[in-house]
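Re: that backbone. Tokens:
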């Protein structure tokens, strides 16, 4: 009889998950490093050193204001993670709660929540940020709110669909027969059984949030100067593509690797947390 393989052993054999985990770890290490050290101050302007190519002093060169590109990338990673964590936290907390409520109550409550989710889908993060900017002005807070609102219906729909499956299982029917109320069943039986799916979705939405923040900053609606942002670095580099093409390559590569790493990690987690793959075939 085959023995179950541990999670760590299966994770190390999953190539996509390992690659995604390494890229995600590098992103987190870059953000953590920027809290205590950067090669140069990301806010220091030195016009005499502007547009330098990579060299011994400035490893990735300098931007049009003479700022060190490697320092800007490190601090930009921190800002991207900050936006992603808060925005996904908003969507995860509110969306999961609404999805569990819809599955537990059914009837008009479920219909109302799902129709509100459909309505929210009509306003993507960029459009929501434009509307918030028109009312409150551009800024990272409005970008976080816009991305968070966009995440709410995503988590609500996934939670409701997966929770409905659990509610039809025999052990839930047995719990109801024992006199447990809907909220106790939700917390003790439904939520633990869909937690792995929500974790995977949160990882994927984290990548979407980083990409959305870069897009909003590129449009001037996200992180505002003097705070570094990968998206704004791309916007500032677009007029210098022939003069200094590396200014666009480095932040674009950082965004691509961060999103790729999180997506690969999320896909790997989905496979690893699938109970059907928990045992050796």
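Recovered sequence:
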């Amino acid at each position: 009889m085959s023995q179950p393989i541990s999670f760590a052993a299966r994770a190390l054999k999953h190539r996509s998950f390992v690659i995604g985990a390494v890229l995600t770890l590098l992103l987190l290490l870059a953000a953590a490093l920027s809290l205590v050290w950067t090669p140069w101050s990301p806010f220091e302007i030195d016009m005499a050193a502007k547009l330098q190519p990579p060299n011994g002093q400035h490893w990735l060169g300098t931007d049009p204001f003479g700022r060190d590109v490697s320092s800007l990338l490190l601090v930009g990673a921190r800002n991207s993670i900050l936006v992603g964590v808060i925005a996904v936290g908003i969507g995860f907390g509110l969306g999961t709660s609404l999805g569990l409520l819809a599955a537990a109550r059914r009837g008009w409550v479920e219909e109302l929540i799902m129709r509100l989710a459909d309505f929210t889908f009509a306003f993507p993060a960029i459009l929501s940020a434009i509307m918030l900017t028109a009312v409150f002005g551009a800024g990272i807070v409005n970008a976080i709110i816009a991305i968070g609102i966009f995440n709410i219906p995503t988590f609500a729909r996934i939670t409701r669909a997966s929770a409905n499956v659990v509610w039809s299982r025999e052990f839930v029917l047995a719990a109801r027969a024992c006199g447990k109320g809907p909220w106790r069943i939700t917390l003790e039986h439904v939520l633990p059984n869909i937690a792995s799916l929500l974790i995977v979705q949160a990882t994927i939405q984290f990548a979407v949030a980083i990409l959305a923040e870069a897009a909003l900053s590129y449009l001037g609606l996200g992180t505002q100067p003097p705070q570094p942002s990968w998206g704004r670095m791309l916007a500032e580099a677009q007029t210098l593509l022939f003069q200094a093409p590396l200014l666009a390559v480095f932040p674009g590569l950082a965004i691509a690797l961060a999103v790729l790493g999180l997506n690969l990690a999320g896909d790997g987690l989905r496979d690893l947390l699938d109970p059907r793959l928990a045992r050796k075939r």
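The first helix runs from residue 7 to 13. Residues 54 and 61 are 4 Å apart (CA to CA).
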